[in-house]
Amino acid sequence: MHSRAAKCFPLAMTPREGPGAPLLFVSEEDRADLDAWLKRHGLQDVPLALLHPGNRRITKRGRVGRWRDDKSWPLECWAGVACALLARDPDLRVVLSGTPKEKRLLTSIAGAVPSTRVFSASHDLPVRRLLALLERAVAMISVDTGPAHAAAALGCPLIVLYGAARPAQWLPRGPEGGTVVAIGGPPRRRRVSEISLDEVLEALRSLPFRSPFDGPPRGLDPFIGHAQG
Predict the structure, then answer these.
(1) Per-residue pLDDT tens for 54-105?
(2) Is the separation of the CB atoms in 172 and 215 below 8 Å?
(3) What are the start-end ranges of the E strands in 69-218?
(4) Phi, psi at residue 193, to the nearest 5°?
């Protein structure tokens, strides 16, 4: 079981014996809660893609754009990814996920995208609702953080941006048939800010979105992810 994900979601994660992928479980109660939340915000019955730009180091630093950690990526890059997602599917909505302490970061990204189809969810996305959302989402782009590992465990197609951590050691794992693309990390890069927007957009163009209504993942065997150094 992956230690980062286990620390974030200790009540929902169960290890398999041997080298298999961790499992996350979403209850019917949590799915119903998500359905009600989506309806309140006009997000029901549409494909949802998640962007998760934050991490604990950002919340410790304070001001947006002035944190000094290896996982920060420029606001304009996150906005560029959001625009690319919206262009890929005219029905799709982009959800910016994070904690209440990351509200300013998410609001800044949303404000940089000229579309009403971007929703900042920092204020009401507790862990269990986030898990249900990850189960539903068609794709996720995230820095290397706990929710990225949860997304992989729930079968969500995923692009993960790495700074100083090595993808070979920290690549999220999920069900058979899942897709995780790792970009960055040593030895070529040690900061997410060294990753270009074009590199992420190229990976995004080939990322297979899943249907938002496929239900929970069925496969339990480890899948193969790949890294782009």
Answers:
(1) 987 655 554 544 446 789 999 999 999 999 999 999 999 999 999 998 999 9
(2) no
(3) 93-96, 118-120, 139-143, 158-162, 180-184
(4) -65, -15
